[in-house]
């Protein structure tokens, strides 16, 4: 026994310096991420708790924490979800066009242009939203109010400036489009040719081939792309802060009025400069809430992807 | 069901490159026709031109005629999508849809016809197709599991079940056993024997024993040289081709002297 075990153990201890260096580097990179994340979480928690427990007269808003943060959470989620609803179908469509429909040259050019959108700083999107999109949207909001006003989303009164949560969401949608398109495109391109041909040989049209072979294969990738987009939309600060006309404490389903809930990130950016004492803690606590929301969203996305792991095509 | 194919003077191009030149071959209904020949001689390309699958590659086109029971496959009003619904195909590597269950894989073609089916009706189709493909006994208890969990030979039979579930006129097989072990191969060869009662089968194979075992007719393809197009050298009854070939190149190939 010992004589057969001994050489085996000896062989497994052969470690090449290259391996050791690389595994050390990658392990420490992985640990570093955890440390940074833990550091941020610890900071938010320690600094945030006084804000959560602060009494209403200690903070500028004059409210205790929950009623203060709830409209912000609502606004954050509403803007991000609308942005996602707009951006996901567009991203999938554009990615599919680039990967499977367009002539190769056109697809490449389009891919570059989309990537370029990602390089535009968010302040520029904010300017575009406030200076171009909002005035253009105002008449549309008027029309929506008078024709579809019975739907709570369009109840009005329509904003005259167009600086509504709808406009903010459209700006957000444009901002998250590039990353989502890029990911979807990469995944669509990776669809095994075998599966595409299987669908085509059964007599699938191109669209049926996409539904039969490409989308199921890309499903988890599309979810990841949407979550990355959602993460960015939840955290986006400057563009929302510039575009949105806010009235504190609003919680409404109305998407086209001039009284809108703010978002957590935009609210921090706008209020931090003139905040002091417990108000700062309250703002940091709202940051902690955003942190937790983002974490939960990612967690939920993982769960969705994992639930159908057997069918993912990875086995 | 089961139609004959009549190909006359078919040239297949990829862009400007002539891949296959001047193929004229009659393929009788309800029989197995095997294409043999060295790699790169255009037999797979030619097979794919029989259900217009070669068009998936950019720039591919053909000149000449392919008649399915007298109907021109390349007529301007012929939709390749309809062609492929009529002519099923099984590929070199088993390719069940990994995201679908065994059950849904078999029904994939039916879904494209977008007929609404009752559950009992689709159950029948699944059972009948899997029985025809000789797979029913092995998978009947796990129809809801993914098709990718099966062994290679089972996956290939699942693909055959998927292809025949829509009751095509013709079944094209592109080296269906080249990724399989000998036992799975012999199961599929037996299956081909049974299927030819109902379907016209065209099979590409690198395995000459397989061609001799399963086919009624054999066609030998060859390249005239590097960079030259592939050509059909000769076609005839399988016994004749293997015992008394007309062309010296055919004889050299089947005796293993090249290729």
UniProtKB/TrEMBL annotation, chain A:
Main location: membrane
ABC transmembrane type-1 domain boundaries: 73-301
A Pfam entry, by short name: BPD_transp_1
Membrane-topology annotation of the record: Multi-pass membrane protein
TM annotation in the entry: 21-46, 72-98, 110-134, 170-189, 237-256, 280-301
Compartment(s) where it occurs, according to its Swiss-Prot or TrEMBL record: Cell membrane
InterPro entries assigned to the protein according to its UniProt record, in alphabetical order: MetI-like, MetI-like_sf, Phosphate_PstC, Phosphate_Transport_Permease
Keyword terms, alphabetized: Cell membrane, Membrane, Phosphate transport, Transmembrane, Transmembrane helix, Transport
Gene Ontology BP terms: phosphate ion transport
Gene Ontology cellular component list: plasma membrane
Signal peptide range: none
Any one GO molecular function term: phosphate transmembrane transporter activity
Family the entry assigns: Belongs to the binding-protein-dependent transport system permease family. CysTW subfamily.
Described function: Part of the binding-protein-dependent transport system for phosphate; probably responsible for the translocation of the substrate across the membrane.
The protein's name: Phosphate transport system permease protein
Lineage of the organism: Bacteria, Bacillati, Actinomycetota, Actinomycetes, Propionibacteriales
Gene (UniProt): pstC
TrEMBL record, chain B:
InterPro entries found in the cross-reference section: AAA+_ATPase, ABC_transporter-like_ATP-bd, ABC_transporter-like_CS, P-loop_NTPase, PstB-like
Assigned GO CC terms: membrane
CDD domains (alphabetical): ABC_PstB_phosphate_transporter
GO process terms (BP): phosphate ion transmembrane transport
Record carries keyword Translocase: yes
Keyword NADP: no
Pfam family, one: ABC_tran
Gene3D superfamilies named in the record: P-loop containing nucleotide triphosphate hydrolases (3.40.50.300)
Domain named ABC transporter: residues: 5-254
Family annotation (NCBIfam families): 3a0107s01c2
MF GO annotations: ATP binding; ATP hydrolysis activity; phosphate transmembrane transporter activity
Sorted UniProt keywords: ATP-binding, Nucleotide-binding, Translocase, Transport
Protein name: Phosphate ABC transporter ATP-binding protein
